[in-house]
Design goal:
about 120 residues, mainly alpha
């Protein structure tokens, strides 16, 4: 699976095997063997590949069809949050128990809906 994904990623970036092997500091013949699934890259090389293409290891190993690196996705989402949203997430992250998280979400949704309804009543009344 790694070979198929690696070849697709390389072609998507319009790189030759020679160009990619130079950038990864591996031999072209090794890259060729990876791409035809005749050889598996070692841990260091697979990490270099994931970093270069900004994909997850799960994607390279075929465990995920999502090629977008989750860390990069988180950073993109995090950058778009307001300070208030970040503060709310910071508070919520203090709660480690998932059952408690679910209870708090349910109560918070009810509380917020009540505040919105109350506010709407004040505006119309």
């Amino acid at each position: 699976m790694i070979g198929t994904r690696l070849k697709k990623l390389r072609k998507d970036k319009n790189l030759t095997q020679a160009e990619l092997s130079l950038r990864l500091s591996i031999s072209r013949s090794s890259l060729s063997l990876y791409e035809i699934n005749k050889r598996e890259p070692d841990c260091e090389t697979i990490n270099k590949i994931a970093d270069f293409f900004e994909v997850s290891l799960d994607y390279l190993y075929g465990r995920s069809s999502d090629s977008f690196n989750s860390k990069k996705r988180f950073m993109n989402i995090s950058a778009s949050l307001t300070e208030k949203e970040k503060k709310l997430l910071e508070i919520f992250n203090k709660i480690k128990d998932e059952t408690l998280q679910d209870k708090i979400i349910t109560k918070l949704e009810g509380y917020v809906d009540g505040l919105i309804d109350m506010n709407d009543g004040e505006e119309t009344g």
